[in-house]
């Protein structure tokens, strides 16, 4: 376990990294770089219309987080996480393009193989992975190539030798815009068994409002990568919602509502309740503006406090991992509304936090991101933690 003095070490090193973050800001790139600051935005309550769930039970105003154990250490730029039936985990590593299986008890790593065609660079590389709810022999992966971002699926055969366990990739969707920044990358199967993907606008804001582009969107598709036929705004398109800058986190609540996090530019990071056919504002609106035609975020944060990546829903709250913010945010829900102000946990204790996934009950897996070139890695980084939350 991490000794008690380390949190302050993190904070000190992060202070040095702040100079780098400032330089990047000046260069017009405010992504998941930089350092935490004490500046805290006021947290206004959301102003969406009252929903039919106004009688929904509320999560407690204050929650708790207990770090139960470190599942594994020594990962290099981990990004996506997919639990397997039985308690083991699959984790993708961005820059190497490799996928590993982590033994849920011992933490032992087994390399499945390298996803062919990954062109890592900047924020791009091998990003999200997902396993269909009813088929643990198939792995879906979202990654950056030399020309685009795409999603493939590969057969997974654990009986084969380590390093040779992935079948040939079958590309189910391609042509998602790529860039040095804003590659999106989160994928997840929804309760409707459709595959959802969060994309980025690749640094070209206009793409987010262009319904013919796959950039700056949340996509919803069949497991074959096709438009689902119903449920999307247009029956022949995988575009589900638009006006996003760089969607990084996706998860569903108990009532099957989709929640998503995205990076803001210089002002506001966002947590949004996603509805099909809605416009989330970027690049015309960042954070809450109240402008007609745009859906305001449920909550918003200064990028120094969040720069959110993964989200997971557990015990009635959204849990959101912060990269630059180096903390885990808890947003308690009452139906479609916040039940209370967001609460921060683990601030500067483990560094940058990339991915959080629910175990279906009161447990979360949390993936750190100190080795992504923007952190200050310490011995054991990066790691996967198991948390118990409420
Ligand atoms: Ca927005």
Written overview of the protein:
The protein has one helix spanning 6-26, and strands at residues 65-72, 78-83, 89-93, 98-102, 109-114, 126-130, 138-144, 149-155, 170-176, 187-189, 195-198, 217-221, 239-242, 247-252, 258-262, 269-274, 299-301, 308-314, 317-322, 328-334, 337-338, 343-345, 353-358, 363-368, 384-389. The protein is globular and about 55 Å long. The two termini are 22 Å apart. The strands form 6 sheets. Strands 18, 19, 20, 21 and 22 form a 5-stranded antiparallel sheet that branches. A 4-stranded antiparallel sheet has the order 1-25-24-23, with no helix packed on it. With 390 residues, it is mainly beta. The longest helix has 21 residues, at 6-26. It has 1 helix and 25 strands. Calcium ion binds next to loops.
Short description:
The chain has about 400 residues and is mostly beta strands. Helices cover about 5% and strands about 35% of the residues. Strands 18, 19, 20, 21 and 22 form a five-stranded antiparallel β-sheet that branches. It has a four-stranded antiparallel β-sheet with strand order 1-25-24-23, with no helix packed on it. A four-stranded antiparallel β-sheet has the order 2-3-4-5, with no helix packed on it.
